[in-house]
Amino acid sequence: INGESGLAAQAKALLSSCTRRLADGEPSEQVDTEFRSSLQALLDTCSSKGIAELERCLQARKSKLPEARHEEAKKKLQTPVEYQGELARYTWTLSLTEAVDRDQLRALKVHFKKTIEELWQAESTRAIAEEQARQVFASEWTAFEDKCRQRFDRTTKSQKQLAEEVCLVFNHVIRQHRHAEQQMHVLELIPATALLSAEPISAWDDTRIAHEFFETRVPQRLAEYATACRGVAGVAVARPPTALHHVAAVKGDELAGLVVPEVFNHLASALDYDTHDSTTQIPASDAILDAIRRLNEAVQAEETGFLAKVGVRFKGGAVAFLNAAHVCLRHSLLNNLARAEKERIEHQWKMLQSHRQHTEEEFISMVRGRTSDAGRAKMLADSFFDVVAREWLDETLIAVAADIRTQCLADMPDASGAAERAFQQAFVERNWEDVIEYVLDVNAYLHKIFSSLFEDRKVSITRVQRPQLGGRLGGYFD
């Protein structure tokens, strides 16, 4: 991870490359997608190498490592990898957010200032009426919105694209684990076209589900269960008791009227893939694997528990129902991603609309300032100040802050390095007061070390950068 060509160095190089592309004006959505996919590839490669090295070392041992300790070792290997991934994503988010905001505001300002310049050239002999200016603004804003809408459409993932991503990750996880886990072995690899054309069993009516997947094994137990259910009023089920349930129960079809709703009540949480944070990113392979295992375990528990209790079994075994349940799980993730994608576009659109009133007021004030050459000069001066004192200075200060952060991370790159530094500074150097602080509260001691380190780096860098920035900024205004 921390070697010359390790994960940290590769992630840093990727950050530098993508940040430079943002500064060059490349579309932020495209750069963001490529960064995240490239970073995930780096993380997966590093994890695979670590696990492969662990397996090689374990095979060289004379005694076999217990399975529990084997899994624990794998999880420990993942911790520093995940840390580097989160660190890179956090740094990238700062750069991306700043770039997107800057691009949007710059596009708005440039577009309407260019428009007012054209109006000045066309109307050089007389003042521009405010009503005319508002009509021009409405027309130009509509054209600007159309361009933004086209950009949103280009960056929006279609249902087919999302389905392909979902199936790619699910099929990859199944291939990786199908030979090690029995229930994985029976799961089918589903292409995106099949997923889109398949109707999830959650949308089927209960009679169809009962006919396709269930059969009565011990009629007496099922009859006893039906009698007990009819004696209890208001049984709560995940699938609402529709008229179909009532009719099925009256006709004696206990499978459709009673068993199927109860099965879906038990499996409801396992069949629903909740992304929690409304993200449009496909979950990691580990999260997908956990969801698959959770559904497998829920179906197995249902087969050996509730169904056996009421004298019902899966028709022809649980394989067909298990695969149908996994199609339902994929549909759940697909629908959540599609909803998140729609919400993302709506949020972008609302952000665009929120700028309209402010931009219109600025545009009209610019028109009103056209009454004299002094008004135009003032506007040009304000424009120059915006570019230099705000945009340029903001970018420069962010670069200085990033330099401070980089130097701090070079001294304390991760949790294990920070702990080692604290131990060396306290015990090895025999600073007994520090030893007492370390023993009493190691986290507080680490915070003290980092705060001191951060202040030292900040003072040393700003001492050098302050006169340079002041000189450059003064030169611009001169």
Proportion of residues in β-strands: under 5%
* Radius of gyration of CA atoms, rounded to a whole number: 31 Å
Q: SSE order, as H and E? A: HHHHHHHHEHHHHEHHHHH
**How many strands in all?**
2
Question: Count of DSSP helices?
Answer: 17
- Label the overall shape: flat
The span between the termini is: 48 Å
Helix content: over 70%
Structure classification: mainly alpha
Mean of pLDDT: 78
Q: Uncertain segments of ≥5 residues (pLDDT<50)?
A: 233-252
Q: Would you kindly provide a written description of the structure presented here, covering whatever features stand out?
A:
With 478 residues, the protein is an all-alpha fold. It contains 17 helices and two strands. A two-stranded antiparallel sheet has the order 1-2. Helix 4 packs antiparallel against helix 13 and helix 10 packs across helix 11. The longest helix is centred in the first third of the chain and has 56 residues. The radius of gyration is 31 Å and the shape is flat.
